[in-house]
C-alpha cells in the first residue's frame, strides 16, 4: 500500500508543478529563506565574484550557495529530478522516524511496572501502531503545503530532512550525531537550533541505572558536538566569503527581525504590517521569545 501512496504523492507534486500558476504557488510557499529565485540570484552573484550579501537580497548561507553552484551545472536543467529524489528521501526519513518513535514509546512502556494487573491491558503494544507509518505517509504525501512547496522548488525540504534525522538520531540515543545535525539545521535556518534543548535533556530521561555522571557526560558531549559543528560551519563560511561576516546579517539577523513582511501563509507578516512602528521592537522580541519558551515547556 505504501508504494502506491508514494507514487500518488509524487504524481500530485508533478501535476502541481506543471499546471499550478506561479502566483498561486508562491502565495502559499513564499519565504525569503527558501526561494528558488533567490538561490539562483545568489549563485549568479557568487560566480561573478560579487558579494551575495551586500544588499540583503540573498538569504542562503555561503556553504549552501557554494554547494548549489557546483550541483546545478551537473543537473543541466533537470532540477525536478533532484527535488523528486529529495522528496523520496523525506518520505523515507519520515517513515523511519515513525518507526523510531514507536520503538521509543514501547520501550517506555516497559518501565511501567507499577501498573495494576487489571489495567495492564491498557498499556500500548506494537499492534496499536500498525497503521502509524502508513498514516504518516498519507499525511505527508497528500499534504497540500508539501505539494505546492515542491511545485515552487522550495529549498526548505533540505533543512526539513536535516531536522527529521536530528530527531531520529536523538530518539535512537545517538545524541552527539543528533546535536551535530541540529547544528547543521541551525546553520541553514537558525530555528532548528532550538532542538538542542530536548537533545541535552534526553540523557536525563534514561533509566536511573545509567547514573548521573554518565548523563552529564552525554549531555556535555552533545553540547560540544553542537558548538564545534556550528563553529566549523561558520568558520568555513567566513573563509569562503574572503574574511567577511556580511552573511550573518543577511541570513540570521534578517530572520530574527522579520524584515520581510510580504504576504504569505505565515501568521506574523500581517501583524507587523499593521502595527504602529514604535511597537516593532517589542513584538519582534515577543515573537522570537515565544518559540524558545514553548520548547522549554514541552521539553520539561
Describe the structure in brief.
The chain contains 14 helices and no strands. The protein is mainly alpha-helical and 300 residues long. Pathway: Glycolipid biosynthesis; glycosylphosphatidylinositol-anchor biosynthesis.
Percentage of residues in DSSP E strands: under 5%
**Which series of helices and strands comes N to C?**
HHHHHHHHHHHHHH
Roughly how many Å is the radius of gyration?
22 Å
Q: State the helical fraction.
A: 55-70%
Annotation, overall tally of beta strands: 0
Kindly report how far apart the N and C termini lie.
38 Å
The tally of helices reads 14
Largest sheet: none
Average of pLDDT:
84
Organism: Fasciola gigantica (Giant liver fluke)
InterPro entries: PIG-U
Family: Belongs to the PIGU family.
GO biological process, one term: attachment of GPI anchor to protein
Please describe what this structure looks like:
This protein is an all-alpha fold and 300 residues long. It folds into two domains: 1-105 and 134-257, no CATH class; 266-299, no CATH class. The chain has 14 helices and no strands. The chain has helices at residues 2-19, 22-29, 36-47, 62-75, 79-109, 132-141, 144-151, 156-171, 175-189, 196-201, 212-240, 246-256, 269-274, 280-299. The two termini are 38 Å apart.
Keywords:
mainly alpha; 2 domains; transmembrane helix; PIG-U; cell division; GPI-anchor biosynthesis; cell cycle
